[in-house]
Amino acid sequence: MTDSTKLIEPTMADIQQARSTIEKHVLRTPLRHYPMLSKLLDADVWVKHENFQLLGAFKVRGGINLVSQTSDDERKRGFVTASSGNHGQSIAYAARAFGAECTVVLPEGANAAKAGSIAALGAKVIFHGDVFERSKERAEELASSEGMRSVHAANEPALIAGVATYSVEIYEDLDNIDVLIAPIGAGSGASGACIVTDALSPSTRVIGAQAKNAPAGYHAWKSGKFETYPMSTAAEGLATESAYTFPIGILRNRLKDFVLVEESEIESAIKHYVHTTRSLVEHAGAASLAAAIRLKEELKGKRVVLIASGGNITTDQLKAVLA
Asked: How many angstroms separate the first and last alpha carbons of the chain?
């Protein structure tokens, strides 16, 4: 099990190294401006389309970076991780790229599109527990009993360095960004965004967005206390009962604001994405737009970048939202 107290926050050198490592394995995703979205928010709004990334989510950047740094022994032993979906795809993809076995433990009732993708990538899929935390416990048991290399979904510097590369692309593509809004589940993406922003555009405010029905990260960020909270969000990418010490530590030092959004606001944001950008964004990925709409008065007239972190919405989920 990873001892997060001994983990070192990635530097910009680590992030640039990650970039050169992963570039042949992932896509450079577009940063696009949408007049209708800008009109909706009365601001200059841009979307970083990680929903167009390989496997439909930003996480693959982190998985490739982490597995690339492992030893031959670790790869021979194989990898095991727990996930609500996108992180599992990331580790499955990376393990296959580097010739290693992989087991992913998902909660029962996990997003079927993500589970199917993980299996298609050649990983062994195990369903265990009603929420991510129970899946994580099972993955840790498997790592212990079968000798596999355990990969934590958040307390891994190499994951954060890898996913931080999307933020480097943003600042290469666009200047004078006032606000960047990122979804927060476990917190790797927002942590990376904060590190990059502080280095490349310190005047930009990074704001995190989390589901009100899965608020553990928000409360840990505010108080510094790590407690379990009830979790009932449909946004599986945000669906954690607990917060994770390593990314929250980074966010407590660097994140400027943190917003909780309602389920109805997330669903409305998914519809706005379909209407204004003609693209599919999953519940977790839509949280940043939901937060922007909530903060509309504060964002008025500003240049805003929204992270559409993933697009792995099932047809049933989409039908429910559009209904």
From this structure: 43
